[in-house]
Amino acid sequence: MSATILVVDDSDNLRAAMRQALEAAELDATVLEAADGAEGLTRALAGGVDVVVSDVVMPNLDGIGMLRAIRAQHDELSLPVILVTSQAEPGVRDSGFEAGANDYLVRPFSPPELVLRVRVQLRLRALQGELNQAKERFRNQSGRDPLTGAGNRRGFLDGLGRELSRCRRHGGRLTIAMLDVCQLRRLNQRLGARATDALIAEVAEVVGRQLRSHDRLARYEGGHFALLLPESDRPQGRIVLERIVEILGGRVFAGLGVGELAIAAGLVVYPGGGLESVEALSNAAQACLDRAKALGAGTIIEWPLAPADAVAGDQLTRAAR
User: How many CB atoms lie within 10 A of CB 114?
Assistant: First the structure.
């Protein structure tokens, strides 16, 4: 993949010399120019630049000032900066490194030295990019359920935390729901482990089709699923759950007849109910689900729980805060 190198220097001749050396080195790179720190900063922050090579002493904005402004937006790994100066005093180099320079060139330097230092920074940046991609793949995999492809418990709780923070900042609403395939153990004994896994995967697929693109579906464990519905109030969340329960209850799954798949669900909405943390919200949703399962298939229970469960609900809320 072609790289982009930005050369910043107030001397036309020195810029041209560096550009010529870099273009002759077969770096598979495009070389851009800027005549001072202000122009260099604008080009660097516009995006698409892979390495900056900049003089230190320039009008309008010097190289150190430009570097500090770049570091306010990009760290040393995301945008490497090589400083160039004819001032060989250690104090100048120290100031550059303290500001976040990746490397330093002192004039006079040879074209091969310039090319070598730029090549090293390009390689380091490419390796960092590969490492970031590997981390992202690991993060995605660690937050995914391998059977269904939906999120897992960890990924769901992380997403709930982010949505909770967003709601607090912007005043939004959030619906958290949990649903469960009732009597899963009995189904497993009847159908076998492989067929039960296929059933769970199909349930996840059906539920996922009822959600919006920005909603989240996660499998907690077994046939226990959690839903995160941003910008949804209680009536909207209720409609989604009723639709899901109806569709799953009327669907024919392999080895089961119509209506044999029993689903129960619990529903919690933020803000409301005195629930202010990820733990409190997830525990409340679980309590609603447990109550729904006790009442039977097709039941949806909302938080707060009915008066008969008020004591248990108060205890749950206090413990989760």
Answer: 20
